[in-house]
# Entry
Amino acid sequence: MKFQDNFLWGTASAAYQVEGAYQDDGKGLNVWDAYTQEDGHVAHSENGNIACDHYHHFKDDVKMMKKMGIRNYRFSISWTRVLPDGTGKVNQKGLQFYSDLVDELLANGIEPLVTLFHWDYPLALHQKGGWLNRDSSDWFAEYAKVVVDALSDRVKYWMTINEPQVFIGCGYAIGKFAPFEVHQAHDLTRMTHNVLLAHGKAVQVIRKYAKQKPTVGFAFATPCCTPESNTPEAIAEAKRKSFAFTKNRFPFELAWWADPIFFGKYPEEAYRILGNDMPEILEGDMEIISQPVDFYGVNIYESKATETEFGYAENAYIGCARTQMGWPVTPEVLYWSPLFLYERYQKPILLSENGMASHDWVQLDGKVHDPQRIDFMKRYLRELYRSMQDGAKVMGYMYWSVMDNFEWADGYDKRFGLVHVDYQTQKRTIKDSGYFYRDVINTNGEAIFS
Ligand code: GCO
# Structure
């Protein structure tokens, strides 16, 4: 039992979570840089100033990936490393870092997958209104062009934005992520519309200026519900809930963000529920937003099996295995979610993130034994395999994350990596799961069945 020959086996990271070097070589500040200097936003008042110092360790980090047999690496570009003010002047040294990283990856037989935006929004643009400003999509398109010009001779795979549900939801609705603001629906819908325009314009830029045929998508979060039983009714209900638009969940929904891209319109229920809070849609907007993409990138960690219209039925997971994040271990989500997404949007799925945080440490023998993560990967990947057998078209799987890193509001406590990072010394130690993943990749999936 193997995955298809061209299956993309990889791992993922994001600039702010790993790079550090937050003021080096002309980099401008982003909202995470700026606002996490204030205490109280992040656990232990930590920030990403240094993080894994990947900016200075990238060569060793790529060697480490090679040692784990990694074939694909999804990383993001820090917008303000490339354009310190978000637009205008290009910082050649910042651009060079990504060019060198791409070269290093390719020289080690690792295919790069680039995410243009993974939440580190330029401070200078935030001060001009950020995503509320109708010009924000043009700012993003300008940035996208700079990156595409510099890297597309070597980079084929592109993701525009990562989890808009989460950076708008956590950043501007509930104030948990930078810039730690709380806005009402009227603003949030406008931000959404500008983010979607930015996505669409970036797709246009990539298609127009890429130096080789690009494969373009995004990486979305997904509130995916799984059925409580295998009856047709339970399956239909899980599907309905997965794509439902509810006032309560807004703006964390799936269809709110994906329907405009694939169907050129917001969900019907959104008009009914949001009324006058719906964004202003100018002529031509929906055409820009619904530029064809090549794949549906999705980050999936857990099922929202019991989520109701009114929130979470907490007791449904009593005693259930949970990761260090407190997320229930629900591998069946990798069976149902790709099937539901593929059926609705008819695009190949890229698992752009999946993984777990656990209480890992370097043990007395100098190794990191993380059997839970190995078990987690087996269980989730077996379900993914089953999903593909039953018709979901899946291009690849990117384990989150290549190494332990800065987990946003949770700081450094939560360890998602295949590689352990000692933040005092920057020493890396490949965990048992990193070696297990090497076997998975080398056997094209067979190792998950042993
Ligand atoms: C996200 C982000 C990652 C997180 C990961 C674990 O999707 O939330 O892409 O940056 O670190 O998902 O929470």
User: Anything to note?
Assistant: The longest strand covers residues 111-117.
